[in-house]
Amino acid sequence: MGEPVAATHPNEDDVTYSLSGANAGLFTVDEETVQIRLGQAVTLELGQTYTVNLTATDSTGTGAIIIVVIEAAEPTTHRYDLDRNGSFDKSEVIKAVADYFAGLIEKEEVLEVISAYFAQ
């Protein structure tokens, strides 16, 4: 769900990740990609928000916590298809390009949106 996060240690110490909080039991965290995933056989209620604490801990037990808010929304064909109509309009392409130049998405994703726009 969403973009993965990651912590780095100044001494290149290994970092482990864990979830806590009232909604932590609904989710898991992939140790390799640091992607938060929905637990098995869990169904979220649309329109509800869920909060988990993602903790990054080094080998000495020192850690940092990020509070992650997850909103259960209707799936879209692509996150830049903002009006959920299955195609991209000019404003959606501009949003993708702006996110690319802001460093929020990779080149492949913006090219996917641009290609789909011109293929319509």
Structural account:
The chain has 120 residues and is of the alpha+beta class. The protein folds into two domains: 15-71, Sandwich (Immunoglobulin-like), CATH 2.60.40.60; 75-120, no CATH class. The chain is 21% helix and 26% strand. It contains two helices and five strands; from the N terminus they run βββββαα. It has helices at 90-101, 107-119; strands at 15-20, 27-29, 36-38, 49-58, 63-71. The protein has a three-stranded antiparallel β-sheet with strand order 1-4-5, with no helix packed on it. The chain has a two-stranded antiparallel ribbon with strand order 2-3. The protein is flat and about 55 Å long. 10% of the residues are buried. The model has no long low-confidence stretch (mean pLDDT 85).
Number of helices: 2
What is the CA-based Rg, rounded? 17 Å
Structural class: alpha+beta
User: What would the average pLDDT be, to the nearest integer?
Assistant: 85
Short synopsis of the structure:
This protein has helices at 90-101, 107-119, and strands spanning 15-20, 27-29, 36-38, 49-58, 63-71. It has 120 residues and is α+β, with helices and mostly antiparallel strands. It has 2 domains: 15-71, Immunoglobulin-like (Sandwich); 75-120, no CATH class.
